[in-house]
Write a structure and sequence with these properties.
By secondary structure, this protein is an all-alpha fold. It has one domain. It has 14 helices and no strands. The protein is globular and about 50 Å long.
Length: 300
């Protein structure tokens, strides 16, 4: 696998994310958000373990050092439990647009944390890309946001996920993407289960309706595709590039929302999409110097 294939995986993640955020808003309705989050994350952890066994990767799991296990436990807490609980409660309150908007601002704290902990210095292309992305997201979503406690929860989740991204990038120097994804989801599920038991919600896991279990299967499948593509892609590209590419999921969520409501794409939304695409391109050019924008005469 090389950097270009890693980039393609992250682009696939962005498309999956756009669909997932839209569907999760419908799925989480009627659920206790923490029970819903635990159930689908635990399903993904089980499926990831099955994939590791099926791909013959169990020796890699068995040979992990104590330091590796400790790091995966930390990743599960920071990325696989707390932010999920915050995010899905947040979108129950604030809605899909708020969830998609703030989740796609992930690249901003990632740039800061990558500089502090990974020594990734932001170039002028990264700065330009960030400005384009923020402008594009403003045109797409911000005028429609209604501020609420849900937005604070989503914002907190994004901060945790930005730390999760940077820490995962560090772990991927020596571990495979599948293994990092499994550790994050497995230990995250363990922490969430402990939380549910402590607050007296443990029994709710087994008392859901058949419709709710269907929603868990659907959203769990999307989450499985998300973590498989993202962490295997993140291994090969800069964390700032990966986080910026996730912004492509926002136009996907917007399109799905418009299509569901039968609303035509506005000029404002079209401008936002163009700015988001331009911003992502700048991040990609920062990570892939051979990429050049095409001029009007067709030459790079």
């Amino acid at each position: 696998m090389d950097k270009k294939f890693g980039l393609m995986l992250v682009i696939a993640t962005a498309l999956i994310s756009g669909v997932s955020v839209f569907i999760n808003v419908w799925a989480v309705n009627g659920f206790d958000s923490s029970v819903f989050t635990f159930a689908k994350n635990a399903l993904v952890a089980i499926l990831l373990f099955a994939i590791i066994l099926g791909l013959g990767m169990f020796p890699e799991l068995r040979n992990l050092k104590k330091k590796d296990w400790r790091n995966l436990v930390i990743l599960g807490l920071v990325g696989g439990s707390i932010p999920f609980l915050l995010f899905f409660r947040g979108i129950q309150i604030a809605g899909a647009s708020a969830g998609s908007f703030f989740h796609k601002l992930l690249f901003i704290p990632v740039i800061i944390f990558a500089f502090l902990f990974l020594r990734e210095r932001p170039s002028w292309k990264v700065v330009a890309g960030a400005l384009f992305l923020v402008g594009g997201m403003f045109f797409l979503v911000l005028p429609k946001l209604a501020w609420s406690s849900g937005i604070l929860m989503i914002g907190g989740a994004v901060l945790f996920w930005s730390l999760d991204n940077v820490f995962a990038k560090h772990l991927l120097k020596r571990l495979s993407g599948n293994l990092v994804a499994f550790g994050r989801m497995f230990f995250g599920s363990v922490f969430m289960l402990a939380f549910l038991v402590m607050v007296g919600k443990g029994r709710m896991i087994w008392s859901m309706s058949s419709t709710q279990y269907v929603w868990i299967l659907l959203t769990g499948a999307l989450l499985l595709l998300f973590v498989l593509t993202y962490y295997n892609g993140l291994k090969w590209v800069k964390v700032t590039t990966a986080a910026s590419v996730l912004s492509l999921g926002l136009p996907v969520s917007i399109f799905l929302d418009y299509a569901f409501r039968g609303v035509a794409v506005t000029l404002q939304s079209a401008m936002g999409i163009v700015l988001v695409l331009a911003g992502v391109l700048f991040f990609i050019m920062a990570d892939f110097p051979e990429v050049r924008p095409v001029s009007a005469d067709g030459r790079s």
